[in-house]
Automatic annotation (TrEMBL):
It comes from Clostridium algifaecis. This is Fe-S cluster-containing MiaB family protein. Residues 14-211 form the Elp3/MiaA/NifB-like radical SAM core domain.
Length: 234
């Protein structure tokens, strides 16, 4: 598994994929990413230390991802991240968090004491599709409510059952309410959720302008950030 990379286009940053305890939700119908979870904390901490040694601080920005939320990272790993932030003079962090943790975000902000962009995997603002089909476990009234907690959301595009209207609304909400965003084109995995090639083709044709939005990133493949793919590195 590749666990260190750099994002050199928009929002230049170093990015690392760390190991964590199991996702607090872990029930999303489309996700097998949680297979990277591990309950062996000693093993997780040891691996994470090796990955953190790769950080150079060259962009002064670091994104930390794991197969769940930043709150599931071992406490020792959070301390190790903070040490790297200080030693490498990191000025901004990106972290991921499930909606469940929305009232705890300030704890991470206080701990690191630097600007943090929290990303939340909303997937879609269509409530029925998000919770009944994707089983996301994120219940809220509207995009404005989400924006009170998160500066960035991740959307999922290209799943059988999604509609063009759904996607249009999602992109409108993203641009209207959020400072940052990531649009993930669905790649089939070990789950039963299927990819809609026609919908993806339509999205590419109609929303290619998002590539020019400085704080919106479109991932056509789930390894486009450079982490998560296979590696022979030990």
């Amino acid at each position: 598994m590749i666990r260190y990379s750099t994002v050199t286009e928009k929002n230049q940053r170093e990015i690392i994929l760390l190991k964590s305890s199991p996702c607090i939700w872990g029930k999303c119908s489309f996700c097998d990413y949680i297979d990277d979870n591990d309950s062996d904390l000693k093993k997780d901490i040891s691996l994470n230390k090796r990955i953190l040694k790769k950080i150079t601080g060259k962009y002064k920005t670091l994104e930390v991802i794991n197969s769940g939320s930043c709150f599931e990272l071992p406490k020792e790993t959070l301390n190790d991240i903070k040490s790297v932030v200080i030693s490498k003079d990191i000025k901004k962090l990106f972290f991921e968090s499930h909606w469940i943790y929305r009232d705890k975000l300030s704890e991470i902000e206080t701990f690191f004491n630097i600007p943090i962009i929290f990303k939340c995997g909303i997937e879609t603002f269509d409530n029925d599709f998000r919770n009944k089909i994707l089983n996301k476990g994120a219940i809220f009234k509207n995009p404005l409510e989400v924006s009170k907690y998160f500066k960035s959301v991740c959307l999922l595009v290209g799943i059988k059952g999604q509609t063009k209207e759904m996607i249009k609304n999602d992109i409108d909400y993203l641009l209207k309410y959020f400072e940052y965003g990531c649009v993930n084109i669905f790649v089939e995995n070990s789950t039963n959720i299927k990819r809609d090639e026609n919908l993806i083709h339509w999205f590419h044709k109609n929303f290619s302008f998002l590539e020019k939005e400085k704080n919106i990133e479109v991932l056509w493949n789930n390894t486009d950030f450079g982490v998560g793919g296979d590696s022979y590195e030990i």
